[in-house]
């Protein structure tokens, strides 16, 4: 696997505690503890643990005010879930370009495109092309590397957009000392099996807006009004709460986050050094001012070596070294083919030149010089 999980802390102990006490489902002390730990790590005010990252993003978008028929700005270079969540809201992804320094949304380019193709009416931005309202922007911190959030936040203010961060991949990453997922109105994280920390399947909504946090908690728990025995629900809610069993696994994992990040940053620096002397290719380095979790390491071929990508993928996979190309860009997928989009030439270039290479903690620690748990 590109990123296999490692469970050599308290995971098993915590999970069996759930089983032996009977607290396996959506109520239990590990859920609260997991949320508390995430609050401490990220410095955010409110955390609501959810069943997965996709549904967390769906609800975060709704709570940020995305409505049926809106358009939402999404990078074309992202995992499909980013756009799926927009569609689940009845909104339409508006695909935008990325830049090569952060692998995130190219803000300068987007600003001039929006200036030309939108108009502001009554405090909202509308597309001149489609007539639809553009209500939000979803920066995604690609492979754990934080986007240029200062620029994105000021662009969002200029065009009256809600900022909903897809921080699914960036637990433990900071920009200017501030944790990814704390710059926008609301953000989400994922704890799927391939992420830096896993709960088996899981996600979370993070926000500094207390009202939004309350709404997230209420809606993820069937909109039940707390009461000692009565089942009273005051609106159509969802069942998106993280089960205690999953949170128990996650608590065991979060306890080791610092160690995971140290190992992964050490691996990244060795990749960067190793590829420095290789012609035509370089290992991707965190943007200036950022401290990245290096969730997935990536190498980038020079434009003149693009044709070697598929041969490299074939050779490495046949040799039992797992490598993968970047995601297909969203406009190449049948369900998003007709989405509005701008020029995507940089995303296309990055996609054609990028290869993800093994990045898991066990790979990192196998050849590491830094002390590990066992040594
Ligand atoms: C993993 C991921 C998600 C979705 O998370 P799930 O928990 O798998 O639903 C969303 N966006 C990005 C960028 C991701 O990498």
UniProtKB/TrEMBL annotation:
This is GDP-perosamine synthase. Its cofactor is pyridoxal 5'-phosphate. The keyword Transferase applies. Pathway: Bacterial outer membrane biogenesis; LPS O-antigen biosynthesis. InterPro entries: DegT/StrS_aminotransferase (IPR000653), LegC-like (IPR026385), PyrdxlP-dep_Trfase (IPR015424), PyrdxlP-dep_Trfase_major (IPR015421), PyrdxlP-dep_Trfase_small (IPR015422). Keywords: Aminotransferase, Pyridoxal phosphate, Transferase. The keyword Transferase applies. The modification N6-(pyridoxal phosphate)lysine is found at residue 195. Belongs to the DegT/DnrJ/EryC1 family. Its EC number is 2.6.1.102. GO terms for biological process: polysaccharide biosynthetic process. The active site is at 195 (proton acceptor). It comes from Stieleria neptunia. Signal peptide: none annotated. It holds the Pfam family DegT_DnrJ_EryC1. It catalyses: GDP-alpha-D-perosamine + 2-oxoglutarate = GDP-4-dehydro-alpha-D-rhamnose + L-glutamate. GO terms for molecular function: GDP-4-dehydro-6-deoxy-D-mannose-4-aminotransferase activity; pyridoxal phosphate binding.
């Amino acid at each position: 696997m590109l990123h296999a999980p490692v469970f050599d802390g308290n995971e098993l102990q915590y999970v069996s505690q759930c089983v032996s006490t009977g607290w396996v489902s959506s109520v239990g002390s590990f859920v609260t503890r997991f949320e508390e730990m995430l609050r401490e790590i990220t410095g955010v005010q409110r955390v609501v643990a959810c069943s997965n990252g996709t549904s967390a993003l769906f609800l975060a978008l709704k709570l940020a005010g995305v409505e049926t028929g809106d358009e939402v700005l999404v990078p074309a270079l992202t995992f499909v879930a980013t756009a799926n969540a927009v569609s689940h809201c009845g909104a339409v992804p508006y695909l935008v370009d990325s830049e090569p320094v952060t692998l995130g949304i190219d803000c300068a380019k987007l600003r001039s495109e929006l200036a030309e193709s939108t108009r502001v009416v009554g405090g909202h931005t509308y597309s001149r092309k489609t007539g639809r309202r553009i209500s939000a922007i979803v920066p995604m911190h690609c492979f754990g590397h934080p986007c240029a959030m200062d620029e994105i936040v000021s662009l969002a203010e200029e065009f009256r957009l809600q900022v909903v961060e897809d921080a699914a991949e960036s637990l433990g990453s900071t920009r200017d000392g501030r944790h990814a997922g704390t710059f926008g109105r609301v953000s989400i994280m994922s704890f799927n099996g391939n992420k830096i920390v896993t709960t088996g399947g899981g996600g979370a909504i993070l926000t500094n807006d207390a009202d939004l946090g309350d709404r997230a908690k209420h809606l993820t728990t069937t909109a039940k009004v707390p009461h000692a025995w009565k089942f009273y629900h005051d609106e159509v809610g969802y069942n998106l709460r993280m089960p205690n069993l999953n949170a128990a696994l996650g608590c065991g994992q979060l306890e080791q986050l610092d160690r995971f990040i140290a190992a992964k940053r050490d691996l990244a620096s060795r990749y960067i050094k190793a590829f420095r002397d290789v012609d035509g290719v370089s290992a991707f380095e965190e943007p200036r001012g950022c401290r990245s979790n290096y969730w997935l390491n990536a190498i980038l071929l020079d434009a003149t070596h693009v044709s070697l990508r598929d041969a490299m993928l074939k050779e490495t996979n046949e040799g039992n070294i797992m490598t993968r190309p970047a995601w297909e860009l969203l406009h190449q997928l049948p369900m998003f083919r007709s989405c509005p989009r701008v020029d995507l030439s940089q995303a296309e270039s990055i996609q054609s030149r990028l290869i993800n290479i093994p990045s898991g903690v066990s790979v990192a620690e196998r050849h590491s010089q830094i002390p590990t748990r066992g040594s």
